[in-house]
Amino acid sequence: MGSRLLAVTFEADDPAEPARFWAGLLGREIVEDTGGLLLPGGDTQLGLRFVPGRAGRLGANRMHLHLTSADLDDQRRTVAAAISLGARHLDVGQRPEEAHVVLADPAGYEFCVIEPGNGYLAGCGPLGELTCAGTRQAGLFWSEALGRPLVWDRGEQTAIQSPRGGTKIAWDTWDGTPAEPNRQRFELFPADGDQQAAVDALISLGAARLDTRDNGTVVLADPDGTEFRVRPSPPPPG
Length: 238
What we know:
Blueprint: E1 3-12, H1 16-26, E2 31-33, E3 36-39, E4 48-52, E5 63-67, H2 72-85, E6 88-89, E7 101-104, E8 110-113, E9 127-133, H3 136-146, E10 150-154, E11 157-160, E12 168-172, E13 184-190, H4 195-205, E14 208-212, E15 218-221, E16 227-230
Parallel strand pairs: 1-4, 5-8, 9-12, 13-16
Antiparallel strand pairs: 1-13, 2-3, 3-4, 5-9, 6-7, 7-8, 10-11, 11-12, 14-15, 15-16
């Protein structure tokens, strides 16, 4: 009756553009998915999915990615590769002493290239973290929903991770969290193929049902009101 996380979905004017960007930066393949383009993450790395919709907008994005660096040269190479693929530098008020680099992808979504020596992201792989605007309650909900233990729980900051390691997913309460509809969302599928049982389990944990799409996808909201979706079938192979 459990759910598995397929990917985090990003809306974009032209989904192919950010899909090519992230495939090039992370060295992943692009798989044609129902209504979108999927970059599978494997057992431990977070999958990324791009669908038609509104592009990201600075200050309105609820989620952003953190890439890791083995050393300073690796960080510089990652930044240079991102720029060559279409990223741009962003000033979001970071201080001069902060060593991470803030960029925006071609669809307008912020991401950070984290400096080497960051112990919190050690061993997480190249896509070290997805950080989300949200409360501790949301983090606890997603820990139960995905069967991923908490690996960080201090104040309103929480993070979960697969028992196998890999990309962490974190929540924190950001100032000025936007109230507008999400451009980014989690995409789930039932672990055993029983979508109704998976949806019922999520509702029992505190999710609210919002809608059902024509393709059978069920739209839900987590305890913070953040939209996510449960697909009726497993993802395509890849």
